[in-house]
Amino acid sequence: MRLEGKTAIVTGGAKGIGLAICRRLAADGARVMIVDIDEAAGSAAAESLAADGSVRFIAADVSERLDVHNLVARTIDAFGPISILVNNAGIVHAADFLDIEEADFDRVLKVNLKSAFLCGQAVARHMVAQVGAGNKPGVIINMSSINDTFAIANQVPYSVSKGGVSQLTKVMALSLATHGIRVNAIGPGSIMTDMLASIAHNKEAKTRILSRTPLGRIGDPSEIASIASFLASDDASYITGQTIYADGGRLPLNYTVPVKDD
Q: Per the database record, which ranges form the Ketoreductase domain (predicted)?
């Protein structure tokens, strides 16, 4: 198991892509701390993934500095030095540009972007100290989106936040390279999570998605988890400052593609 002996923190890990990443990292041998604001889902996820205590749950708001410092300290107490951080927590808020409220704009950026800064800085400081103590450098993975490049008119703060995450990834990677800490991002396209399920079961909406997806299908959370596992491993030892897009070919597309009827 390529992540055996490593400790990982996954924010927003109770559901969807985050849960799939927790599942994959645990299967690859890592001890995993699931972090989420949903206590019921987080506790259930930890129990379902490991009965031996190698996967645990902490309820925390990762957009709040004190919560972040607490979860880092509790993870170290539970599992020892942190090797992997996956900044996955994220929310959306739909509203046209002329209508969106300042509070909603701030809320999305706080969860999607500020939390990656807060968690990244807190964990990176710990990782730097661990390198100084003779341990191997760690890995940080941020969850971006194809919407760091594309934009959706009624997803103003989400698109802005993901553009920020991709730039934050580059800045962190350059700043932490001298310590051997690698920082990369993943940019998913349309992935079958609870958030997308209601759209995907609407034929017209699904056709719109597939018409801009050359591979002709919606992605699975496990496919994003596979990328996270790769980036967290020594197989990606010379990759830093990059965003890997898993979008079924959407980013290079300059037209729509035919969609097969089900």
A: 6-189
